[in-house]
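Q: Please design a sequence for this.
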């Protein structure tokens, strides 16, 4: 029997997100393939990791943003070895959005772009009995990009039929590690998005069919029971659009969870996290669904607000407008759910005035008091609509590792505010990330509350600083970083971060 190793290269910021991508591939291959599958998570590798690579017939690597260095270590090891010259099969974010650049840079690799289950299964199945090399027959497999005789071949796009997916095969060893280290367990309720038109978003490149597709309620519930039995209580749904406008389905799921909790089949304290669209929270059916899910344990909702300025919302091609976003925030808060808000404050085409309008709205809606990091900039990611429209501001080649094109701001004052704010934020970014990662994991709910409180105070300080920088730039004051105000805010922020570390240390 041939042997397949699936490696997830982990998160370079240290967040322990369950490696769902390789688990999904493994589930698909195990279901029908006559092959031994092992999974390996970079966060857990041991000293014999590289030597053991040579024991496998196939190696699949899931590459998240920031993991190019880790990939190169494996690539160099395999390609220097005399024993094994097999192609490496790459999937995940980097090969999906930068397969062209990857194929230019590395030899003997096969990139799987988008959903990997079918492509991976077909690929492995084809070589179950023979030697593994790159040849013409790969052209028949969907979602692949590879080089053959110097030519780049990109095969047709394909989607997984979610109806046939029964359950995700999880690796006990990985799950035990997550539990011990208070990491994050994850599951899928759906893929794709009912809107799928935001200009910065990657769903169109990620899926052959970017429309919303749901997994069966049976599969979702089965996984919740499994996670509950394993002692987990706070899973994250990775769905881009949890509802997909199918509110009755969500209500059915919520009621099923409530019923299973009452029968002791899902632990009573199981709570979960979902992502929704602003439109979901303001329609009557959506509100009903949120209320039922809250009873079932819904704890927190990601809401992609992205902007509160008219022209910027148009550039982002968001479904929501300022009014929808404002109402959605109020509804979700009134239901008693925590909001994780997505906000893309800086974009290269924004004017200084538009930045001021955004800052004003953030303050008025108290977004600065949420624990999520809202004051971010747009990433120009390859294969998105905005990547084409913003080509004139791009200043360099694609940064493959971070999966974005570097760019300049067209308004010099916006550029000044951004660079001053970035300098401020970068100084303590690792600290706030560490607290944020811990606040998302499998921890006691009181600790989650305390950590989120600290984070919201940190975000509030960040917002004060941004506001201060904005006013200084407006008044042409040059030495922003050296002011007494900034020094005082820095001390406050550092004290909060130390408090967060202390809480984490005591708990761990
Ligand atoms: S609503 Fe979210 S998932 Fe849908 S297109 Fe916009 S950013 Fe992407």
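A: Design:
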């Amino acid at each position: 029997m041939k042997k397949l190793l699936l490696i997830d290269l982990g998160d370079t910021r240290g967040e322990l997100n369950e490696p769902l991508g390789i688990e999904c591939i493994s589930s698909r291959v195990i279901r029908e393939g006559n092959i031994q599958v092992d999974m390996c998570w970079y966060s857990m590798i041991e000293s014999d990791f590289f030597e053991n690579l040579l024991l496998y017939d196939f190696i699949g690597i899931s590459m998240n943003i920031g993991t190019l260095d880790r990939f190169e270590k494996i690539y160099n090891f395999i390609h220097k070895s005399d024993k094994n010259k097999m192609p490496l099969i790459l999937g995940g974010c980097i090969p999906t959005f930068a397969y062209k650049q990857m194929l230019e840079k590395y030899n003997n690799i096969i990139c799987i772009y988008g959903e990997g289950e079918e492509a991976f299964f077909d690929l492995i199945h084809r070589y179950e009995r023979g030697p593994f090399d790159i040849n013409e027959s790969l052209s028949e497999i969907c979602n692949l990009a590879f080089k053959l005789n110097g030519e780049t071949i990109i095969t047709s796009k394909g989607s997984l039929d979610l109806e046939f997916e029964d359950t995700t095969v999880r690796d006990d060893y990985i799950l035990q590690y997550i539990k011990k280290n208070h990491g994050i367990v994850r599951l899928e309720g759906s893929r794709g998005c009912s809107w799928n038109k935001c200009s910065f978003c990657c769903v169109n490149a990620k899926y052959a069919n970017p429309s919303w597709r749901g997994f069966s309620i049976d599969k979702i519930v089965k996984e919740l029971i499994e996670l509950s039995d394993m002692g987990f209580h706070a899973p994250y749904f990775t769905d881009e659009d949890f509802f997909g406008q199918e509110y009755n389905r969500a209500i059915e799921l919520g009621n099923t969870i409530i019923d299973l909790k009452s029968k002791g089949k899902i632990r009573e304290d199981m709570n979960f996290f979902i992502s929704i669209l602003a439109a979901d929270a303001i329609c009557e059916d959506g509100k009903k669904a949120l209320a039922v899910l809250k009873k079932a344990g819904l704890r927190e909702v990601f809401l992609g607000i992205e902007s509160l300025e008219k022209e910027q919302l148009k550039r982002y091609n968001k479904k929501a407008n300022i009014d929808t976003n404002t109402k959605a925030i109020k509804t979700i808060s009134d239901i008693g759910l925590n909001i994780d808000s997505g906000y893309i404050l800086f974009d290269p085409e924004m004017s200084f005035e538009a930045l001021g309008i955004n800052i004003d709205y953030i303050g008025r809606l108290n977004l600065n008091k949420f624990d999520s990091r809202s004051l971010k900039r747009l990433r120009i990611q390859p294969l998105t609509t905005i990547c084409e429209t913003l080509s004139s501001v791009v200043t360099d080649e694609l940064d493959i590792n971070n999966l974005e094109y570097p760019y300049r701001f067209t308004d010099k004052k916006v550029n000044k505010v951004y660079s001053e704010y970035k300098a401020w934020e970068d100084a303590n970014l690792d600290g706030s990330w560490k607290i944020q990662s811990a606040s998302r994991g499998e921890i006691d709910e009181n600790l989650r509350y305390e950590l989120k409180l600290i984070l919201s105070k940190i975000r509030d300080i960040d917002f004060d600083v941004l506001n201060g920088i904005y006013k200084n730039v407006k008044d042409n004051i040059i030495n922003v970083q050296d002011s007494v105000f900034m020094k005082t805010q820095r001390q406050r922020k550092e004290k909060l971060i130390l408090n967060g570390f202390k809480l984490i240390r005591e708990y761990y």
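Q: Thanks. Anything notable?
A: The radius of gyration is 23 Å. The chain has a mean pLDDT of 94.
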